[in-house]
Amino acid sequence: MSSKITIIGAGSVGSTIAYTLSSQDIASEIVLIDINKKKAEGEVLDIIQGTCFRDPISIIAGDYEDARDSDIVIITSGIARKPGQTRLELTQTNVNILKSITPEIVKAAPNALYLIVSNPVDIMTYVFTKISGLPENQILGSGTILDSARLRCGLSEHFQIAQSNIHAYVFGEHGDTSFIPWSGAYISGVSVDEYYDLEKKLGKDIEPIDKEAMLQYVQKSGGEIISKKGATFYAVSSSVCKLCSLLVSSSESISTVSTMMHGEYGIDDVCLSTLTLVGPNGVQGKVPMRMTKAEIEQLKKSADALKEIIAQIDLN
């Protein structure tokens, strides 16, 4: 698989994405760009010295012009979230950083697919969509793909079943107003509630799932990791690399990524995560999932929370 991927930002997340990509067969060229050129050079040197154990790959610390002809551009730049700080408190500072980056990178790579990872990711995806001038199909945010991975991890541990058998998702904001549409949570075609009943019939010693506790596990995992080790970067990097693999695949896949809403579920002019069809041509559209009225209201509540913040930020 031959593709060129540029990563903007050589912090913990950006450099871990570069390292993870270097050990997989997703990219043949990786460009790492950071305002701190020496930091980017150090990360690249550390990564490339381990690539003798794989097929040849090009990894450089570059400038914006080196992003030319990129298939994918990943934007991770921004100030990291501090312990006790919400993603939304980062907003204006990281928006300002994005505004300085956008014209430079879009000029160099106008045809790339853009994957926004910087937090707060839904607002950053919205801002990039508004200021980049690019077609919307070229833009997606990592959204709740990590939240959904955390949910699958939690459900796997609860039911003692392989994560690959679990199809359950987190919708809405990547943050405090996210929610789990349990009406669409399945374990190999069986609803979560039905699966619990099945396990009991099979004599398994299993407790009913505490759905509110599971949501708290999903929402609070990032903060817990930050409080214990200072930052989160392994799982988010794995999630981003998975998205990259979808974007260079020969067929399309469905994922919970953050994209602009155009009336779906009665929501417009905001970026958040629902089931979305993505592939080599970028975002192809939303996949409507049947939800209860209460779940749709939760999605609207998440949208309203994001719109409230968007109304307060300076896009000019």
From TrEMBL:
Q: Name one GO biological process term.
A: glycolytic process
Provide the coiled-coil residue spans: 289-316
Q: Can you tell me which residues form the catalytic site?
A: 174 (proton acceptor)
Give residues annotated as binding beta-D-fructose 1,6-bisphosphate. Answer: 152, 167
The residues that the entry says bind substrate are: 81, 87, 119-122, 147-150, 232
What single Pfam family name could you report for this chain, choosing any that match? Ldh_1_N
Q: Which UniProt keywords apply?
A: Allosteric enzyme, Coiled coil, Cytoplasm, NAD, Oxidoreductase
Catalytic activity entry: (S)-lactate + NAD(+) = pyruvate + NADH + H(+)
Pathway named in the protein's UniProt entry: Fermentation; pyruvate fermentation to lactate; (S)-lactate from pyruvate: step 1/1
Q: Where in the cell is it found?
A: Cytoplasm
UniProt binding sites for NAD(+): 9-14, 34, 39, 64, 94, 100, 117-119, 142
What family does this belong to? Belongs to the LDH/MDH superfamily. LDH family.
* Subunit structure as annotated in this protein's UniProt entry: Homotetramer.
Full protein name = L-lactate dehydrogenase
Q: Which organism is it from?
A: Blautia wexlerae
Q: Which gene encodes it?
A: ldh
